Q: What sequence folds into this?
């Protein structure tokens, strides 16, 4: 049975807020169950079974969103659908998180600094900032003291000795999981 033109037009006027609300309800269940997998109260196999209908629902909503009159919403949905396989990688692969929260947390301080200080004024300043933020992030992940590392690096440079390494002496599973 074909849809009437008026019904089809209503379906296309889905709007960003409407799609967001409908998909976020589904995603709440994904994250609730994902935390159960992480704390061991739900097996990965059980999780996969629970997620299948939610996965289909979210993908269906994205496909619906591609037909929206709102070009921005339609474009966003289209881009997400192009990455559909990557969107659900965490379901099959242990060690992959469901969100990019760690990366966002690490970048937050940098983004705030850039917004409040107007960035750097030279390519050298940008290079310094990139390098020092890499040192800060690496040391924090390894639970190493940033000031001690920078002090050792300066002493090595001035004394023309070998610089300290940012590579951890041993790589713990927690660091691998956080950076995977």
A:
């Amino acid at each position: 049975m074909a849809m009437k033109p008026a019904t089809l037009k209503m379906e296309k006027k889905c709007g960003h807020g409407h799609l967001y609300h409908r998909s976020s309800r589904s995603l709440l269940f994904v994250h609730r169950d994902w935390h159960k997998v992480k704390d061991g109260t739900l097996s990965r196999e059980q999780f996969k079974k629970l997620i299948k209908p939610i996965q289909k629902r979210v993908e269906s909503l994205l496909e619906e969103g591609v037909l929206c009159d709102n070009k921005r919403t339609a474009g966003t949905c289209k881009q997400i659908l192009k990455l559909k396989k990557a969107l659900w990688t965490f379901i099959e692969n242990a060690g992959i998180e469901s969100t990019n929260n760690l990366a966002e947390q690490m970048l937050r301080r940098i983004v705030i600094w850039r917004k409040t200080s107007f960035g750097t004024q030279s390519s050298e300043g940008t290079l310094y900032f990139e390098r020092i933020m890499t040192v800060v992030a690496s040391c924090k992940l390894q639970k190493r003291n940033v000031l001690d590392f920078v002090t050792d690096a300066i002493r090595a440079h001035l004394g023309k000795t070998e610089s300290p390494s940012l590579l951890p002496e041993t790589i713990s599973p927690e660091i691998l999981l956080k950076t995977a």
